[in-house]
Design a protein that fits this description.
The complex is a heterotrimer of chains A (about 325), B (about 260) and C (about 100). With about 325 residues, chain A is mostly helical. Chain A has a single domain, classed as Ferritin, CATH 1.20.1260. Chain A is about 70% helix and about 0% strand. A two-stranded antiparallel sheet of chain A has the order 1-2. The longest helix of chain A is centred in the middle third of the chain and has 29 residues, at about 160-190. Chain B is mostly helical and about 260 residues long. Chain B has a single domain (about 10-250), classed as Up-down Bundle (Ferritin), CATH 1.20.1260. In chain B, about 60% of the residues lie in helices and about 0% in strands. Chain B is built from eleven helices and no strands. By secondary structure, chain C is of the alpha+beta class. Chain C is built from two helices and three strands, in the order ββαβα. Classes of the chains: A mainly alpha (about 325), B mainly alpha (about 260), C alpha+beta (about 100). Chains A and B meet through helix 5, helix 6, helix 9, helix 14 and helix 15 of A and helix 1, helix 2, helix 3, helix 6 and helix 7 of B.
């Protein structure tokens, strides 16, 4: 990734939207050229990307919490190591994404502060609780599965640093969904109690996972410009349908029932699902999901508890620079 | 199947191996508690890496203990179906994470010992232990590097970080003696060249510790009282809570596969 | 209160001997030692590297994309620098 330092020389004039530049910019996008940090870009493109990439980063970091909830209780050492590695990967992904967002001119600290102040959003899915071990399997299988559907097209996003971060993320995430599916398979081949645990988890996560793809196309406020700028290559509903079609046979293989009795396959082979409760989605985004307050409190606590450590490292670095300067002067 | 404790036939070699496995598991577990809570993302990554190294060591050691014991136990039975009195880890490693300073000091004391110890164990006449030692030594060497750089920054950082680091050193110091003690069960293994005597490792350990602590403008306590008991299952109260969390699934759903 | 900024570093990794160091990403660290450790912990978890460089991001001087024309276009017309510019009969074989 490039640096925010490179962007600091942006003069006022670079932000003045002039029609010729905008047209040139759009022509580059249409020609499938990648936009790099120092290139001229319309302010709205910068703003949209900063919002999207930082939300994505916040989601990775907040997303560590529901799964982190089970690291200390993982039922075998093999599962414990895999889960810790997976949640650690999510931390890494948040880190790559903050760095990608930083190339647009905001520092990680500003972005994090905005999130902690409740001014930035993160994925609604992480506001649901992980109540049993089966939730860990379901998150890997469905939440990571949905995330991959979203992220693979982002590897071709018009903004270079975001696309490169997504390539790295997708490569690392390839084990995450398999890890979750393996947990589900083990449960479904286990005792009746384990199978019931798996079904219960699917029942609770199914609808929230479908909401992860965002509002239906006719209601999505950002889709038009994002599509024009090739940030987004498929609509919310297209990706949601793709996900459902991929997931139904997997559920059948597991012997689990998707909690949508009216669901049926149409002539084209697509699985038609019932109406999604968008009111629930709206409430969760507004801060009223089952865990919103806990998630924010946990992030704020980590940030506040760590302040003295960050200050210590900064103070030490300053002292060392000072000593070096003194030595040089002698 | 029940969720009752397993019985372990603690021959000297089984006991020896379980002690090291428990060390690695308990400290790895403690570090895994940090996940998502570290002072910055970069350190979240580092603590998880260290935890994963230790979990890996634990699994290899448990598997070897199971093989030596030959009674059908395995890594998970050792980890999940022994109670506090059957655990054999050092008291130092079960101490709660506390703040970042306490976690780093605990890591620094142990890793500096473990690095010396595993390096010496590479010459064990037991080829499995020698191989585990060779792998663990490289991991520990990095843990020493990582933790000592932080000791220096915390000690020589701000007034607050200095104070917290000094408190951590003072409070954990009494748990360091146990690393160097030997009982009869281990004496025979040492004589046979299977295990190494940790006592001669104390001077080089102290030299490294003192050097870093000194650079960090911190001091080591004068108090020489050393707390013992972990190796024979006389633990602090903290371990029971750790185990009740670690073992909750295996205890609630006896005999299930996960 | 706004959180103070911790410096940004660029990370370059040599994936195996014989290859050049390649830019892999960035991280935040207060000094070079911690930056190198963090680079190891973040970017080599899957055995991706044998050697790491970390460079303070603000130490990089970059060309300005708006000067792309004068910087890079003049090279485009020098087609005689490329082997395909020259005709060699096929029967001469590989050259």
């Amino acid at each position: 990734m490039y640096t925010q330092a490179l962007n600091s020389s942006d003069g006022e004039d670079r932000h003045v939207e002039d029609a010729a530049r905008a047209a040139q910019f759009q022509a580059r996008i249409d020609a499938e050229e990648r936009i790099e940090p120092n290139d001229w870009m319309p302010p709205a493109y910068r703003k949209t990307l900063t919002r999207q990439i930082s939300q994505h980063a916040h989601s990775e970091i907040v997303g560590m919490l529901p799964e982190g909830n089970w690291i200390t209780r993982a039922p075998s050492l093999r599962r414990k190591a895999a889960l810790l590695a997976k949640v650690q990967d999510e931390c890494g992904h948040g880190l790559y994404l903050y760095a990608a967002a930083e190339t647009l001119g905001s520092s990680r600290e500003e972005l994090v502060d905005a999130m902690l102040a409740g001014k930035a959003k993160y994925s609604s899915i992480f506001n649901y609780p992980t109540l049993t071990w089966a939730d860990i399997g379901t998150i890997g299988w469905l939440v990571d599965g949905a995330a991959i559907m979203n992220q693979i097209p982002l590897c071709r996003c018009s903004y270079g640093p975001y696309a490169r971060a997504m390539i790295r993320v997708c490569k690392e995430e390839s084990f995450h969904q398999r890890q979750g599916f393996e947990i589900m398979l083990t449960l479904c081949r286990g005792t009746d109690e384990q199978k019931a645990m798996a079904q219960d988890a699917l029942n609770r996560w199914w609808w929230p996972v479908l909401m992860m793809f965002g509002p239906p196309d006719q209601a999505s406020q950002h889709s038009d410009t994002s599509t024009k700028w090739k940030i987004k290559r498929f609509s919310n509903d297209e990706l949601r349908q793709k996900f459902v079609d991929a997931t139904v046979p997997q559920a059948q293989f597991l012997g689990l029932t998707i909690p949508d009795p009216a669901m049926k396959q149409n002539e084209a082979g697509n699985w038609e699902y019932s109406a999604i409760d968008w009111e629930e989605f709206k409430q969760v985004l507004a801060g009223n999901g089952p865990c919103n307050r806990d998630r924010m409190a946990a992030r704020r606590k980590a940030h506040e508890d760590g302040a003295w450590v960050r200050e210590a490292a900064m103070a030490y670095a300053a002292k060392r620079r000072q000593r070096a300067a003194l030595q040089a002067a002698e | 199947m029940t969720a009752a404790n397993i019985t372990v036939s603690e021959t000297p070699l089984v006991l020896y191996t379980l002690r090291r496995a428990d060390d690695a598991l308990i400290l790895g577990h403690r570090l895994s508690e940090w996940c998502g809570r570290a002072p910055m993302l970069e350190e979240d990554m580092a603590l998880a890496n260290t935890g994963l190294d230790l979990l890996g060591q634990a699994r290899e050691l448990y598997s070897y203990a199971a093989k030596v014991e030959g009674r059908g136990n395995d890594e998970d039975k050792f980890a999940y179906l022994r109670d506090v009195r059957q655990y054999r880890n050092l008291l130092l490693l079960e101490q709660p994470n506390g703040d970042f300073a306490r976690t780093i000091v605990r890591q620094f004391f142990y890793a500096t010992f473990a690095d010396l110890y595993w390096r010496a164990m590479m010459r064990s006449t037991d080829p499995t232990l020698a191989a585990i030692a060779a792998k663990s030594e490289k991991e520990s060497a990095y843990h020493v590097r990582h933790s000592s750089e932080w000791i220096i920054r915390l000690g020589d950082g701000t007034e607050e970080s200095h104070r917290r680091a000094q408190v951590a050193i003072d409070e954990l110091w009494a748990f360091t003696g146990e690393m160097f003690s030997v009982d009869d069960s281990e004496r025979g293994l040492i004589d046979a060249g299977i295990a190494v005597d940790p006592a001669p490792l104390r001077p080089p350990w102290l030299k490294t510790i003192s050097g870093v602590v000194d650079e960090a403008t911190l001091v080591l306590p004068n108090n020489d009282w050393m707390q013992q008991g972990g190796r024979s299952g006389r633990h602090s109260e903290h371990l029971g809570h750790l185990l009740s969390e670690l073992q909750s699934m295996q205890r609630s759903f006896p005999g299930s596969t996960w | 209160m706004a959180t103070p900024n911790i410096p940004l570093w660029e990370v370059f990794i040599r994936s195996r001997n014989g290859l050049a160091h390649k830019h892999v990403g960035s991280l935040h660290a207060t000094d070079a030692t911690l930056a190198l450790q963090a680079a190891r912990d973040i970017y080599t978890r899957r055995g991706e590297g044998l050697s790491i460089w970390v460079v303070p991001s603000n130490a990089i001087t970059a060309s300005d994309p708006s000067e792309k024309g004068m910087m890079f276009e003049p090279a485009e017309s020098k087609i005689y620098r490329h082997p395909t510019f020259y005709d060699v009969p096929e029967e001469v074989g590989h050259m």
